[in-house]
Amino acid sequence: MIKFEISAPGKVILFGEHAVVYGKTAVATSLNLRTTLRFTELTSSADFKHSIKIEFPNINLLIVVPLSAFLNYFFNDNFTYLPENSVHLHNHVKDFVESIADLLKKNDDKDIINRQKSSLRAFFYLLSCTIFNEELNIKDTSFHVYVSTNFSVGAGLGSSASFAVCLAGCFLHWSNLQKDKRNTFISDLDKISKYALDSEKIMHESPSGIDNSICTYGSMIRFENRKLVDMLQDVPKLNILLVNSGIVRNTKDLVKRVADVKNTSLTTFNSILDSIDDIAKNGWKTFNNMSSEGEDSKNPKWYSKLKTLIDTNQKLLHTLGVSHTQLDTICQLANKHSYSSKLTGAGGGGYVFVLLPPNEDEQSIISLINDLIEHGFDKFVRTSLGGNGVRLEE
């Protein structure tokens, strides 16, 4: 019986969100917060025979799909897999998920239902891709995939990409084990990232590719012209406070909002994006300088430099129309306590990250946290930047 566990990190975009969609520079890093997937081949029984059990507790999803329902839908004379046409497969997967929707538990929360269906589409897209492309054999089997995460879903910390990377890694690793290839996981990272990106298109239409890259490779990366162009392995030792605004946002809507700014005032749009691009490039240079200095990276001059870049980036994102009153309030509270902060991800809600100085004054941080709680922001976590990408756990 095959059984294994895979995990992938969350991510935080430090500089350049939205601008990166238009080819500008972005800097992102992995977080020491992870999504974990447990895969188990199951022994068939009278109650559980030739079935796919899918369990994602963070979105209240537990569903058992008959294996025959999946195989009959994807492997018949009415459907032809086209390797170069992901949209064709996306549409077929979408129709399949709708066909099994009755198996889902009844839920009146439309957001939860949408997340469940979106997650199932990613699951079956990646499963079918691996079967078609990697010759994964699932006939006459039963298996259980359990995925949980220790960061909020849909809040800008790369939950969907981390999820997709875990699934892509899972099915690819399973396929390799069937072929008795047991030490290939690290060499498959490029393939995992590509599959995850294709899956992300189901949820975000035109993802930049930055989320799946950072969740696959970890560390800190520079993204430019819609591709990974550089990686910083020795990420400076920096801590952040992640504060949840409590506002659920829709990435597709926010990307469209930015596109509307472009269509309304191209000159203003280009000016904002050029400024964000310059900030991201300066941020990358600063992180490289800090990395090369090792322990000397704790020099206050670097924190001061990053503080200015972060605050300016947030103001530009506000001007671009992707902030929110709750995000603005969190940033104002951080500024009141002399900390720099900005939204991360698509904006419109989700998280703000607050950069903590190298020599943290614990009492000052507690004072900020108390202020946040008084204003209703009681969901936060302290974590650090950098860390491993997707990995096969021992």
Automatic annotation (TrEMBL):
<comment type="similarity">
    <text>Belongs to the GHMP kinase family. Mevalonate kinase subfamily.</text>
</comment>
<keyword id="KW-1207">Sterol metabolism</keyword>
<dbReference type="GO" id="GO:0006695">
    <property type="term" value="P:cholesterol biosynthetic process"/>
</dbReference>
<dbReference type="InterPro" id="IPR020568">
    <property type="entry name" value="Ribosomal_Su5_D2-typ_SF"/>
</dbReference>
<keyword id="KW-0547">Nucleotide-binding</keyword>
<dbReference type="GO" id="GO:0019287">
    <property type="term" value="P:isopentenyl diphosphate biosynthetic process, mevalonate pathway"/>
</dbReference>
<dbReference type="Pfam" id="PF00288">
    <property type="entry name" value="GHMP_kinases_N"/>
</dbReference>
<keyword id="KW-0808">Transferase</keyword>
<dbReference type="Pfam" id="PF08544">
    <property type="entry name" value="GHMP_kinases_C"/>
</dbReference>
<dbReference type="InterPro" id="IPR036554">
    <property type="entry name" value="GHMP_kinase_C_sf"/>
</dbReference>
<keyword id="KW-0443">Lipid metabolism</keyword>
<protein>
    <recommendedName>
        <fullName>Mevalonate kinase</fullName>
        <ecNumber>2.7.1.36</ecNumber>
    </recommendedName>
</protein>
<keyword id="KW-0752">Steroid biosynthesis</keyword>
<dbReference type="InterPro" id="IPR014721">
    <property type="entry name" value="Ribsml_uS5_D2-typ_fold_subgr"/>
</dbReference>
<dbReference type="InterPro" id="IPR006204">
    <property type="entry name" value="GHMP_kinase_N_dom"/>
</dbReference>
<keyword id="KW-0460">Magnesium</keyword>
<keyword id="KW-0756">Sterol biosynthesis</keyword>
<feature type="domain" description="GHMP kinase N-terminal">
    <location>
        <begin position="132"/>
        <end position="218"/>
    </location>
</feature>
<dbReference type="GO" id="GO:0005829">
    <property type="term" value="C:cytosol"/>
</dbReference>
<keyword id="KW-0418">Kinase</keyword>
<keyword id="KW-0963">Cytoplasm</keyword>
<keyword id="KW-0444">Lipid biosynthesis</keyword>
<dbReference type="InterPro" id="IPR006205">
    <property type="entry name" value="Mev_gal_kin"/>
</dbReference>
<dbReference type="GO" id="GO:0004496">
    <property type="term" value="F:mevalonate kinase activity"/>
</dbReference>
<dbReference type="GO" id="GO:0005524">
    <property type="term" value="F:ATP binding"/>
</dbReference>
<comment type="pathway">
    <text>Isoprenoid biosynthesis; isopentenyl diphosphate biosynthesis via mevalonate pathway; isopentenyl diphosphate from (R)-mevalonate: step 1/3.</text>
</comment>
<keyword id="KW-0067">ATP-binding</keyword>
<dbReference type="InterPro" id="IPR013750">
    <property type="entry name" value="GHMP_kinase_C_dom"/>
</dbReference>
<keyword id="KW-0753">Steroid metabolism</keyword>
<feature type="domain" description="GHMP kinase C-terminal">
    <location>
        <begin position="312"/>
        <end position="366"/>
    </location>
</feature>
